[in-house]
Amino acid sequence: MAAFTGLFRHDLHLALRQGGDTGLVLGFFVLAVVLFPLGVGPEAAVLQRIGAGIVWVAALLAALLSLDRLFQADYQDGGLELLALSSLPLELAVLAKCAAHWVATGLPLVLISPFLAFLVDLDLDAIPTLTLGLLIGTPALSLIGSVGAALTLGARRQGALLSLLVLPLYIPPLVFGAAAVEAAVAGTGKHAHLLILGALTLAALPLCPWATAAALRQALE
After folding, report:
1. What three-state secondary structure class fits 123?
2. What's this model's pTM, rounded to 2 decimal places?
3. What is the DSSP string of 7-75?
4. d(Cα 13, Cα 10) in Å, to the nearest integer?
5. What tens digit of pLDDT does each residue of 108-167 get?
6. Angle formed at CA 163 by CA 159 and CA 164, multiple of 5 degrees
């Protein structure tokens, strides 16, 4: 646990000290949400109907921006080989790096989402559901994205290839996250959608680090 905590703090410290990934993700998230009302028009009824989808799609795309650098620096400077040879299992090292990535990029998206919900005229009663859904679902985005980042490590045009691999896997969190907000607005029961969203994150928690570690070992061979 000491090695796990140390790796988590190291990656988080680097991410916060540089600040580029967090600023880029937040900037893209804000701009994407702001541009949607300009494109579809200012009608409140239209924005309320598609507001949850707008925020979730913007969050998914923003989460993609920093994934290609999740393992890239360690791969280039040899740190990834040291992680593979260390006493800490590579699966736990991947989990620590994903946790640091989520705290640096995913958590700020969750915190800023209630303010952006006002821009799309989302119902006030649905904003807590939107925030809770993002809080539950964004860890799965980092975990799933780590698999794509490991599979495309060292490839040419890594960003484009990563998007093609990861975006289809992001569809279930998008569907159930947006459906929870719509259910909260309609009053038909949001808990089922949130539970499924939580189940997706819990399923990704053991499976994605294992798959990512296998892909990293293949990249190091």
Report:
1. coil
2. 0.87
3. HHHHHHHHHHHH-HHHHHHHHHHHHHHHHHHHHH-S-HHHHHHHHHHHHHHHHHHHHHTTGGGTTHHHH
4. 5
5. 899 998 888 888 888 888 889 999 999 999 999 999 988 888 888 876 777 778 888 888
6. 120
